[in-house]
Design brief:
Order of helices and strands: EHEHHEHHHHEHEHHHHH
CATH class of the largest domain: Alpha Beta
Number of domains: 2
Strand content: 5-15%
Number of strands: 5
Strand order of the largest sheet: 1-2-3
CATH superfamily of the largest domain: HUPs
Bound molecules: adenosine monophosphate, tryptophan
Number of helices: 13
CATH topology of the largest domain: Rossmann fold
Shape: globular
Largest sheet: 3 strands, parallel
């Protein structure tokens, strides 16, 4: 039997190249590896923890769905669905909440960061966010969760909750492991000490940026003192970050890139990096433009995904209800 894996992305802002090299590109590789049963969803309920306009939200959901398809996720190979289409996520989240220690949630880095960024919107959903994420995962008995490094702490909590539930009600859930890429944390192009993040658009290259914009952004990307192009994250964080990105989008190993650019300046390096990023994203952008014209592509995909995900989730939920004894 194939090992099952699941991951999701929140429909909040535009996806950036950090999401791509840390998560989305890996989703596609894992789907195509043939070794896994793959499930990918759009974490719309999670995204409601940040302020939003209803109309805008619908568009953002559609945009992530289109990005999934354009990047190469294939509904024939993967189960691709919308989180809110499967109410079992929310029900399991409630149940897990009753065994989650309050203190553990307060320690979550993402909660602390987001509370700092939006002090006016520290809602309870932001606090209980990792419980819903745990439910998303263990509901499907998955072995792996491909994510970026910022989600590893949430996965630790997921394992803790699975263990706690199992100890209390009998073996019910598998304990999932994160699957990280070689770039689990791409840094901003304007500040190599900050993670590339939607909350700081000035440090992002977006997947929908036009080639001209990508070239400009990379031209302006921060570098380090000295001229050498070497991967040395401590002393040369900016160039190391650009090298990692270059390697990821081109498939050329870092040491070969170091050799190739030894004795050559930043200008040439950046110009080649920009072309590598532009050509990696060109097929994605083209496909996304085409898909936008096909009105029903997203609806059809999500309807099919819902059916498949529902089957697994409903069965598991029946087991959970039986084990806890409080439901029929
Ligand atoms: P989000 O947009 O927060 O839902 O993130 C979607 C996925 O992208 C998650 O798996 C994140 O861990 C991953 N991710 C976000 N930012 C980065 C980054 N700067 N580098 C690598 N992965 C990232
Ligand atoms: N918290 C994840 C993020 O911000 C998104 C997410 C929600 C997720 N549920 C998940 C990722 C389950 C993997 C598995 O990126």
């Amino acid at each position: 039997m194939k090992l099952r894996l699941i991951s999701g992305i929140q429909p909040t802002g535009k996806l950036h190249i950090g999401n791509y090299v840390g998560a989305l590109k890996n989703f596609v590789d894992l789907q195509n590896a043939g070794k896994f049963e793959t499930l990918f969803f759009i974490a719309d309920l999670h995204s409601m923890t940040e302020g939003f306009e209803p109309k805008e939200k619908t568009k953002q959901i559609e945009d992530v769905a289109l990005s999934y398809l354009a990047a190469g996720l294939n509904p024939k190979k993967s189960t691709i669905f919308l989180q809110s289409d499967i109410p079992a996520h929310a029900e399991l989240a409630w149940i897990l909440g009753t065994i989650t220690p309050f203190g553990e949630l307060g320690r979550m880095t993402q909660f602390k960061d987001k509370s700092e960024v939006s002090p006016g919107n520290i809602n309870v959903g932001l606090f209980t966010y990792p419980i819903l994420m745990a439910a998303d995962i263990i509901l499907y008995d998955v072995k792996f969760v491909p994510v970026g490094d910022d989600q590893v702490q949430h996965l630790e909590l997921t394992r803790t909750l699975a263990r706690k539930f199992n100890a209390r009600f009998g073996k019910t859930f598998a304990e999932p492991q994160p699957l990280l890429t070689k770039i689990p944390r791409l840094m901003s192009i304007d500040d190599p000490l900050k993670k590339m993040s939607k909350s700081r658009p000035e440090g992002c290259i977006f997947l929908d940026d036009e080639p001209r914009v990508i070239r400009e952004k990379i031209k302006r990307a921060v570098t380090d003192s000295g001229r050498e192009i070497v991967c040395d994250p401590v002393n040369k964080p900016a160039v190391s970050n650009l090298l990692l990105l270059f390697s990821s989008v081109s498939g050329v190993p870092i040491d070969e890139l170091e050799r190739r650019y030894s004795g050559r300046g930043y200008a040439e390096f950046k110009s080649d990096l920009a072309e590598a990023v532009v050509s990696e994203l060109a097929p994605f952008q083209k496909k996304k433009r085409e898909l936008k014209k096909k009105k029903d592509a997203v609806k059809t995909m999500l309807a099919a995904g819902k059916k498949k995900a529902e089957k697994i989730a409903e069965k598991k939920l029946a087991e959970i209800r039986r084990k806890t004894g409080i439901f029929r």
